[in-house]
Amino acid sequence: MKKILILLIGVVVLSSCTAQKKMTDSSESLYKRKNLPLLQATLYHQTAAEMRALAYQAFNTAKWQLDQELKKAGLTRQQAVILDIDETVLDNSPFEAKLIRENESYPAYWAEWIKKQEAKPIPGALDFLSYANEKGIALFYVSNRHDSLRSSTLKNLRKFNFPQAKNDHLLLKTTTSGKEKRRQKIDSDYKIIMLIGDNLNDFSEVFEGGSVDERYAAADSLRDAFGKRFIVLPNAMYGEWEGAAIDYEYSASEKEKVKKKLDELRSFDN
Q: Within a domain: residue 51?
């Protein structure tokens, strides 16, 4: 009996040590993950009430600005609002969480995620778009989702009753990620009164491919448009801002990317 008790104690201790080692190994491997920087941003997107507040603030501002535009007289063309989709009207943070858990990077799982049609509305988006639709505003969804994902994208938008979610109001990427030609196509038939997005590229081509300082300068030059013609949604998970910070060297190693990001930081002692 005594021998059995000693044996059981030994098994328990060994199991505990093994579990502890697994936890330690897991913790250590966590910090070696290539997408660890995405963790904090995705956590903010999914858990911060501040993120929701900023989204509500953006769409409240959009509604107020829309009302100001509706007061103007003498219009000869129907008014239109252009919206991005991802992180503007639909929340893809579960996809980002999948990348973190599986230690993968975009585009892994992206098409699979879209085909699930499970992206939920960004707070405030549906209320604003329903209001704009009731006021007779034309709504265009201009996204850099590839055109091959059109059917799933439309089904996801329709699942949550996004207004005007139809083929001729959905302009997706075919050969280029630049949106200027798609905006011009809309502008030929409508008066664009507002653009809503999470990336400054959603508003003007002047932001495309610029350095950090160049994008800063472009934002400063257009300061009067923000909150009026341009409505910006928060997105710290990904975007042109990150590309600018690493000189658009997306194929660089994670170590090289981290070094570039550290070099961009502006500390009080340098």
A: yes
β-pairing, 79-83 with 138-146?
Answer: parallel
**Inter-residue contact 201 to 208 (CB < 8 Å):** yes
**How many other C-beta atoms are found inside a 10 Å radius of the C-beta of residue 19?**
10
Based on the domain organization, do 71 and 166 belong to the same domain? yes
Output the average pLDDT for the chain.
90
CATH number for 179: 3.40.50.1000
Spatial contact of 156 and 118, defined as CB atoms under 8 Å apart: yes
Q: For the chain, where are the E strands, in sequence order?
A: 79-83, 90-91, 120-121, 138-146, 170-173, 191-197, 230-232
Reduced to 3 states (helix: H, G, I; strand: E, B; else coil), residue 223 is: helix
- Residue 157, judged by CB atoms within 10 A of its CB (0-12, 13-18, 19+), counts as buried
Beta strands 120-121 and 90-91, pairing class: antiparallel
Question: CA angle, 201 as apex, 67 and 177 as ends, to 5°?
Answer: 125
Residue 110, in any domain of the structure:
yes
Residues 6+ apart with CB under 8 A from 241: 199, 212, 215
Contact 143, 86 (CB under 8 A): yes
User: For residue range 179-219, what is the model confidence (pLDDT) as tens digits?
Assistant: 999 999 999 999 999 999 999 999 999 999 999 999 999 99
What residues make up the domain containing 269?
Answer: 239-270
**pLDDT, position 258:** 87
